[in-house]
Design goal:
Elements: H1 2-19, H2 24-43, H3 57-73, H4 76-92, H5 95-104, H6 113-130, H7 134-144, H8 146-151, H9 156-165, H10 176-185, H11 189-223, H12 254-261, H13 274-293, H14 296-333, H15 336-344, H16 351-369, H17 372-379, H18 383-390, H19 395-409, H20 416-425, H21 429-454
Helix pairs in contact: 1-2, 2-14, 3-14, 4-13, 4-14, 5-6, 6-9, 6-11, 7-20, 9-11, 9-20, 9-21, 10-11, 10-19, 11-21, 12-13, 13-14, 14-17, 15-18, 16-17, 16-19, 17-19, 18-19, 19-21
């Protein structure tokens, strides 16, 4: 009983500190350490497997942290870092911008401003597959698409909300949560993307776009907003940004193309992993940039952009995985997870109720922290145990948990992407979130409904 009381108290403090915007990495790690110590002294058992203990609890706690870091940095951490580095390099050479420009060019011919928003929502969500960084994609769309939208008569608030909303679904092999989800399900990441994510997101993508179409009209009319030609970003012209050949638009998609071709779907005799695909695509990008710029010195320097991107992702995303797993490990050590598993095995707890419970937990954490990664990394690892206890497929829990983490993130006023869009477009973050809540809620319901029907 003492363990449960202390666990609930620590969890409550964690939630409070996250609400108060304390650094989530530090909060989760410290909470995990406290739970590990509690587990040792109240449970009278080691926190490390037999033969792994250092001989003293003070060292064992940090050995526990060390083991998590070792396993993640060399595995999922390297995948995420390589994807982040590649994304930064593509932005550096202008390839990501070329992809966005090509994707949105047909929209200029549409007459209905809100119909343009509908297609921007769909195109942006698809671009997220090739540009996995939510904030990165949003900034590209702000630079390239936002001026077009405002000049077409769309209010700055509507344009900003839809641009922020395009980043809601974390799809594709380059996504951090996709890789973790695939690992939890025990599937190749490409197969998980093709066989799990794509079918599950077709309907939500359109539902989100339709809801954006009607929601923005409603709020514009309700608030009496007018056209936004006066917005600073609306004055941005394409000539203000460096141009590269249109063929550069294919460069950000090369890793996805390679992973799809050299997989069990097509060329099964050659299996390519994400890191290898990213590295190969990086050198293709360096070669393309060299041919275009004819500057060997600058082209070779570009590889440091890739490594800087990897370092940035390590400092934010990978360490967040480490922090979240430390907290989850502490919860497991004190028996909190076993207690929940016991509840799921009890009468009256259906797989549907279990799914809703986990999705709700993901939602609360994502909104409080502004991070879908933090939410999914904290509780995603618990899904296999819950699924086994409820005698259902692991994917029945992992898939909706992974997808809703990004949807809930886009409903948070403290999310990095919301803050980035808010600051750049000079729109209050709560104004943006007010306009994203309904489309995101529709997407969440569609994802959960799909999981309930399929599984």
């Amino acid at each position: 009983m003492i363990q449960l009381i202390l666990t609930m108290l620590i969890t409550a403090v964690v939630i409070y500190m996250l609400i108060k915007k304390y650094q989530p990495h530090a909060v989760l790690i410290l909470a995990g350490i406290l739970l590990l110590i509690i587990a040792y002294y109240t449970g009278d058992k080691a926190i490390l497997p037999a033969g792994k203990s250092t001989g003293w609890i003070g060292f064992d706690v940090f050995e526990f942290l060390s083991q998590i870091m070792k396993s993640r940095v060399g595995g999922i951490g390297l995948i995420i870092m390589s994807a982040g580095g590649f994304a930064k390099y593509m932005n550096h050479i202008g390839a990501a911008n070329a992809l966005v420009q090509m994707a949105v060019r047909p929209l200029k011919n549409l007459k209905n401003p809100y119909l343009v928003l509908f297609f921007v929502s769909i195109i942006g969500q698809l671009l997220k597959i090739g540009i996995p960084s939510a904030a990165g994609l949003a900034m590209l769309l702000l630079i390239t698409v936002y001026p077009i939208l405002v000049k077409l008569g769309i209010t700055p608030a509507s344009a900003a909300a839809v641009i922020a909303g395009t980043t809601c679904l974390d799809l594709g092999p380059a996504s951090a949560t996709t890789n973790v989800a695939a690992d939890l399900v025990g599937m190749d990441v490409v197969l998980f993307f093709v066989k799990m994510q794509i079918p599950a997101t077709i309907v939500p993508i359109f539902i989100i776009a339709i809801l954006f179409y009607f929601t923005q009209q409603y709020f514009d009319k309700k608030e009496g907003l007018q056209r936004g030609e006066a917005s600073p970003l609306a004055k941005t012209d394409d000539h203000d940004h460096p141009h590269v050949p249109q063929v550069f638009a294919i460069l950000p998609l090369i890793p996805l193309i390679l992973l799809l071709i050299f997989s069990k779907l097509f060329v099964a005799s050659i299996i390519l992993n994400v890191v290898t695909a990213m590295m190969l695509s990086l050198f293709i990008g360096i070669l393309a940039n060299l041919i275009y710029t004819k500057n060997l010195h600058e082209s070779l320097r570009g590889i440091m952009i890739y490594f800087e991107g990897m370092g940035s992702i390590f400092a934010t995303v990978v360490t967040l995985i480490f922090a979240a797993e430390t907290f989850a490990g502490g919860l497991k050590a004190v028996g909190f997870i076993d207690m929940l598993l016991g509840i799921t095995n009890g009468q009256g707890v259906t797989s549907m109720l279990l799914m809703l419970m986990l999705v709700s937990i993901i939602g609360v954490i994502a909104i409080l922290t502004g991070s879908g990664n933090a939410a999914f990394f904290s509780f995603g690892n618990l899904a296999p145990g819950f699924a086994a206890g409820a005698n259902i497929a692991t994917a029945a829990l992992v898939l909706p948990m992974q997808l809703v983490s990004g949807l809930f993130r886009t409903m948070s006023p403290v999310a990095g992407v919301i803050i980035a869009v808010s600051g750049t477009a000079e729109i209050d973050p709560f104004t943006i979130v007010k306009r994203t809540v309904i489309p995101m809620a529709g997407g969440i319901l569609a994802v959960v409904a799909y999981a309930m029907i399929i599984f």
